Amino acid sequence: MRVGGGGGGGGGGGREREAALLLVLIAAACGFVVVLLNLPDGRALPGGVPGAVGEHTGGTHVSVKERRMVEIVRQRQDVAAQELEGQTDENAAEADERISRSPPGTKEKLWMMQDQLIMAKAYLQFASLHGSAHLVRELKLRIKEIERVISHFSSSSRVPTSALQKIRAMEMTLSKAQRAYPHCSHMTAKLRAMTHQSEELVRAHRSETSFLEQVAVRTLPKGHHCLAMRLTSEYFLLDPKEREFPQRYTMQMGDLYHHAIFSDNVLASAVVVNSTISASKDPKRIMFHIVTDALNFPAMMMWFLTNPPNPATIQIKSLDHLKWLPADFSFRFKQKGIRDPRYTSALNHLRFYLPEVFPSLNKLVLLDHDVVVQRDLSGLWQIDLNGKVNGAVETCTSGDGYHRLENLVNFSDPSIINKFDAKACIHAFGMNIFDLKEWRRQGLTTAYNKWFQAGKRRRLWKAGSLPLGQIVFYNQTVPLDHRWHVLGLGHDRSIGRDAIERAAVIHYSGKLKPWLEISIPKYRDYWNNFLDYDNPYLQQCNIHMPKVKQ
């Protein structure tokens, strides 16, 4: 499914813009229709508008105020053209780019033609209702001619003589329309109706775009669903003795590099595992610990039984295997009005129970399932955490106010304001090194449970596990070099190639995950490189490498 641009709400700025557009349209109809269309001496206003500023035209004097209104029209014409003509965002952007690269004389003529189109389309609808068939045909013809001229302009072209003829022909037709419908109030009503209709269309498109984006984010692609079903059915066809991984190491071996992945996505987990092994200097010392839910456990097991991560070792658990978890653990994170699985997933909150999930481990790296490992991670085990629990990259910069604790946590609550610094920098999740021995000593799991229960009683933070993580690990985090972990490939299109390729771990944080069709195309290959699309299971489920548009 392909989804359009973001569906951001209008906000205060949107209302001001809409009000300004309405004023411009009314002004265009009432204040100086005569100036634009029917000045007898044929001279031009500055910027290419027919008529001479400051001259008397049929008893109408063009005042300073009217000249300023002309300038406003000139500034707002691209917005009006886009909204009233029903152009797509892509076509409007191309037209704006073409105008901005055109020579000055060409720009003015293009702007004039777009002004003419706005007025012509308004008169066309008005004329259609009043049965003026000849005028309707003439307006339609002139509109097609002007649209064709605009579409054929190149960034370097001058205005051809034929285009000037079309402009003059449109001026004459608009003059006829103005003489046929001289009553300003009628035209104002028409423009108001057109503006209202355009606003309703924009509002509907925004709502539809937002809905489709959420569906795309929350819906498992058809091929992934097929893969999970096929793997699950084949897992249950195995003999019980064939459903286990060979035990080559024991959990007590402290010289292994332990990596934990909490995921319900088979292919995402496969990419994390494959990329980690590929980047490792000593992959035989790596042990992966994947924890998934009961529904996806068979599929996850079958994938790695048939695609073992040699020479590394792997262990897979289900939430159901963790008998010490509360009985309602899988459901306690559901919140009214919040359906995004990123905010309601039990696996996201399981990170706060790491010492209990891995009681025999003292140190491990936790990787989100939407990361790709590009460098050897063994150096993380050599970092001195100085008695703290968490090693993570900070997400804020010196001049950045967005990635501060105050944007996640409710500092109007006394229990928050007295314990935390509102300007504290947010640290990232997705690639973290944890000292589980120190975690146990400081009782951070107990602190998590305390804060979680407090958050259920009153609103202390935004949805999800990230704000809670900032509180639990407050003053317990050692900042890592930013080259360990680059975030934002799931929402930020501006990340430079150099920053990505220098990073040890790249993270598709955001909605646009690399396994979705709505992912950012230029970042897909970093993920696709670690998935074997010739795998029989992927072929059977029609999961193919998406083509990246150049």
TrEMBL record:
State the pathway, as annotated in the record. Glycan metabolism; pectin biosynthesis
* Basic and acidic residues composition-biased segments: 95-106
Keyword Nuclease among record annotations: no
One annotated GO molecular function: polygalacturonate 4-alpha-galacturonosyltransferase activity
Q: How does it sit in the membrane?
A: Single-pass type II membrane protein
GO CC aspect terms: Golgi membrane
Biological process according to GO:
cell wall organization; pectin biosynthetic process
Q: Write the Enzyme Commission number(s) for this entry.
A: 2.4.1.-
Xref: Gene3D superfamilies = Spore Coat Polysaccharide Biosynthesis Protein SpsA, Chain A
Q: What is its main location?
A: Golgi
Domain of life (superkingdom): Eukaryota
Q: Which residues cross the membrane?
A: 20-39
- Disordered, as annotated region: 80-106
Q: What keywords is this UniProt entry annotated with?
A: Cell wall biogenesis/degradation, Glycosyltransferase, Golgi apparatus, Membrane, Transferase, Transmembrane, Transmembrane helix
- Location within or outside the cell: Golgi apparatus membrane
Q: Which InterPro entries match?
A: GAUT, Glyco_trans_8, Nucleotide-diphossugar_trans
**What is stated as this protein's family in its record?**
Belongs to the glycosyltransferase 8 family.
The protein's name = Hexosyltransferase
Organism equals Oryza glumipatula
